[in-house]
Sequence to fold (412 residues):
Amino acid sequence: MLTEKQKLEVLTRLGTELNQVKDLDILMEQILTEARRVVNADAGSIYIRDKDQLRFTYTQNATLQERLPPGEKLIYNIFSIPADESSIAGYSAITGQALNIHDVYKLESTVPYRFSRQFDETAGYKTHSVLAIPLKTVREEVIGVLQVINAQYDEGSIIPFSNDDERMMVHFASMATVALERAQMTRTLILRMIRMAELRDPKETGSHVNRVGAYSVEIYERWARKNGVPEKEIQLKRDILRMAAMLHDVGKVAISDKILKKPGRLTDEEYKVMKQHAVFGARLFIDKKSDFDEAAAEVALNHHEWWNGKGYPGKIDLSSTENALSSAGQEGKPPGRKRQEIPLFGRIVAIADVYDALASKRAYKEAWDESDIIKTMEQGAGQQFDPDLIKVFLSSLDVMRSIQQRYPDQGE
Fold:
């Protein structure tokens, strides 16, 4: 358990660290991790407000995590609850007040909110103390609720959250809200870029790119830990990868509608033009100002390269658009990148993109059965895909399924 001095030191450091995280989902994970650490909470969750609903967006639970095999992640359902006074999180969102509840099973009959026991009963968990803090902007607008659960002594016994814990979390929540607003703005800008591509290619939807980004991060994290990559490097790179993967096909904005929206099979010449989207996408980030620009260019250019060297666009010179486009897609000219010549992020997004294409329903096809998807991906190992990364991918199918539920296509 942290001392009060240590908690203040943590808060001071977190103000800087949270603002360095750019991706919204990764930021929420870090916010919840640090919030739990500050008040020594066993579990916690984040709700994001969407009009009159609170969307249960992220959760952590140390007790349930310990029941899983090493390296596995807690799978949880995404759902929404009304933003009203009937629930603990809803009450905090509507009133803008923090709630510090010592035992949710012993709520007074005079309070308007109630605790739903459904999760506890399903998961075999017992919630006792809850601290719900509204995430309020400087304009006093509540954009969500941060909830930490079951304060603990060092030996693990459950205790109520103290008044100092509450004050600490209110301060933490104000810093987290600033970071969340910035990350939400970044996500919005990226999705606007995606919507431009979607106007040209209906397959390039916000749900699709969010899934590809989330799949890619999961594959990278498992691969990195398996290969002994330092945790600090993992945290930095997954933030960049998440956003870069979302923009993998942004170059399609430069491809003709006659090709993108053609209902039938492309001719050889049309396919050569379609291949140029990888070059157009990479060229958008050629004037690199950050690690994100470098990663986005890397992913856009390389996510159609094949492990055996038969992908595209191959070894081209991006410094000249004319030269790059004239050679992109030409059979054998230039030679394709192969094996480790293909940057890691490109190899990862190649798997994530194909998996989502096979697993998703489209106007021209139904979603494939998972058994057929697995067979196809396994057959592609050593040919289209990095065989080591395919092994990592296949070990994370439970998480992949949960990501599909998290980002369903519109109308599902």
Remarks:
- Residues 201-406 form a domain with the Hypothetical protein af1432 fold (CATH 1.10.3210.10).
- The mean pLDDT is 84.
- The chain has two domains: 4-183, 201-406.
